[in-house]
Structure formats: C-alpha cells, structure tokens
Write a structure and sequence with these properties.
mainly alpha, 2 strands, 17 helices, two-stranded antiparallel sheet, 1% strand
Length: 328
C-alpha cells in the first residue's frame, strides 16, 4: 500500500513561476521604416526628382509674395513696401483682364472638349485593327506630330493658312475669296484647336492602348456568349475597363485648364487677333517681361494658380463621389 508520504514523494515538485519576459517592440512589417530599410536603394532614386521639384517648383513659390508688395527692378528681391491687395484690385477692375480670362476659358474648354475624347476614340479604332504591321504604321503616323517642335508646328500652321498657302490656293481654285486666317480674330480659335488636335491626339492614345491590354479576354468571351456584338462589347466591356485611366487623365487636364498653350498662342497670335487669342499666360508675359510690371503679373499668376487648384480639387471630389475613381 502507498502511504501519504510516498504519494507526496511521487508528485512532481511545483515549478517556480518566473516573470514573463518583456517582448521587444518590433516595427510592423508594413511600416515605412521597414520598407525604407528593405528597399532603400529604390527610394534613393527619388532623391534627384524630389530635389528638382523642391528647387524649381516649390522654392519659387516664395516669390508670390511680390503680388502683395511693390517690386521694382534693382531693388529688394521681395519688394520694397507692403501694398496689400492693391494689385489684386487692379486686375479685378481691369476690363482687359476679364477679356483675357474669357479667352482662356473658351480656348481651354474647346481644347478639353475635342482633345480629351478623341484619343479614346482613336485608341478604340486602333485596337480593332488586326494586322500588326498596319496598326504599327498608323500608330507611328499619329505619334509623329507630338515630336515636332512647337516652333515648327507654328510655322506649318502659318504657312498653311497664309494668303499664298495651300488652303487659300484651294479656295481660289474653287472660286471662293481668299481668307486672311491669321489676321481674322474669328478664325484663331478654330486654327488653334485644330492644330492642337493634330499634334496631341495620337500621342494621347498611348495610355489608353496600355489600359486596353489589361482587360481580361474572358470578359469578351462572356459577352459574345451572351450575344453581344462589337459595339455592345465596346460599350459594356472596353469602356468600363479604361474608365479609371480616362477619369485620371480628365482630372489632370482640368487641373491644367487655365494654363492653355502659352507657347503656341505666343507664336501664332498678333495684335490683330488679341480679342480672341490673348490668354492669361500671354498677358502675363507682356505685363511682366515686356512692361516690367512684375507685381501686377505675379498677382494675376497667383489668381490663375488658385483657380486651377479649385478646379482640380472639385473635379477630384466629383469623380470620387460619382464614378468612384480619383487621384487621391
């Protein structure tokens, strides 16, 4: 028989409770510190672009202070004296500025209406071309105008629309009177938008063609099994597939709405076409560099930047609430 003493001896001795060791606080695997330690070589590649934007984009913003100070060439870099909203009131009460502002809105709206949807249409048409050689040829022809210098494009437009150019030669051949296109303010917007379409539409198809390659072929097969033709497939499969890309580009285009083509307008316009051709960027050029009224030009430029900021923020909010796609 076992006695209580033998039972007590058979029982294992109780373990001494030790304090639980403190766990070291580790950095989560998804934190920015862990990501930087893991991929610091890749992040180092962003140093030069960040320095570029810091030096040439953000640092010059300090100069906007001269919009509220009286600046004179040869004086202090930040102006001589504080004048408050004096220059803002000047351009708000200037009828010339509002004419320029209206021209900017009209040219920007026309450019957006024609130059935004046409690359989508051209990308859809190129996507339907089955012969690879023909498709590459059409792409090369449509891309070529983008690589031409703005000076060359302006020279071609002026030669085509001159009184001795091919357009007026054709009008003379059919018995119509010659038209001084570059001296008539009513023709400037048509000429500008047409040249912009010719120069940018082909290049704008690149992103859409890339987006088309990401659409799953099984969606087209399912649509064909349901009896959908090519138009139905484009409407229900292709367009929804490229919608995020289209919305993103639309927001970016709206953000640059006010900065309508400064170089091309400057090269094409003349005092006779100022009523319809003069935009904010060219008006700033004349007021700031030609008239040396830097504070007045800075005030107008700050106003243009604020309008562009409001436009891109509004477009982003509307897109996020209606379509579900936005930049941020």
């Amino acid at each position: 028989m076992t006695t209580p003493k033998t039972l007590d001896a058979a029982r294992p001795a109780p373990r001494e409770e030790r304090p639980a060791p403190r766990r070291r606080r580790r950095t989560p695997a998804g934190s920015w510190r862990a990501a930087f330690r893991r991929d610091w070589q890749l992040y180092s590649l962003a140093i030069l672009p960040l320095l570029f934007f810091l030096i040439f984009r953000y640092a010059p913003m300090i100069g906007n202070v001269i919009a509220f100070r009286k600046f004179e060439p040869g004086g202090g870099i930040f102006g001589e004296e504080w004048v408050g909203l004096r220059y803002v009131k000047l351009f708000l009460n200037d009828p010339t500025f509002w004419n320029v502002f209206t021209n900017t809105l009209v040219l920007g709206a026309l450019t957006l209406i024609f130059c935004f949807p046409l690359p989508i249409v051209l990308a859809l048409l190129l996507n339907e071309v089955r012969r690879r050689t023909l498709k590459r040829f059409l792409q090369s022809v449509s891309y070529l105008p983008h690589f031409l210098s703005m000076v060359i494009v302006a020279g071609l437009v002026m030669q085509m629309t001159s009184l001795d150019g091919p357009i007026n030669a054709f009008l003379d051949f059919v018995g119509s009177e010659k038209i001084p296109f570059m001296q008539d303010p009513g023709w400037f917007r048509t000429i500008y938008v047409s040249s912009e379409v010719w120069q940018t539409v082909g290049w704008g198809t690149i992103l859409y063609l890339a987006a088309l390659t990401t659409i799953d072929d099984q969606l087209y097969e399912a649509a064909r099994m349901d009896g959908a033709g090519r138009w139905r497939q484009i409407w229900h499969v292709t367009l929804p597939g490229i919608r995020p890309t289209a919305v993103t580009l639309l927001i970016l285009n709206i953000g640059t709405f006010m900065a309508v083509g400064f170089e091309k307008v400057l090269l094409l316009y003349n005092p006779l076409t100022y009523p319809t051709a003069d935009v904010i960027s060219t008006y700033l050029y004349r007021m700031g560099l030609e008239a040396s009224n830097f504070s007045y030009a800075a005030a107008i430029g700050l106003f243009e930047a604020l309008v562009g900021l409001v436009l891109i923020l509004s477009a982003n909010v509307i897109s996020r609430r209606t379509v579900g796609t936005s930049l941020w």
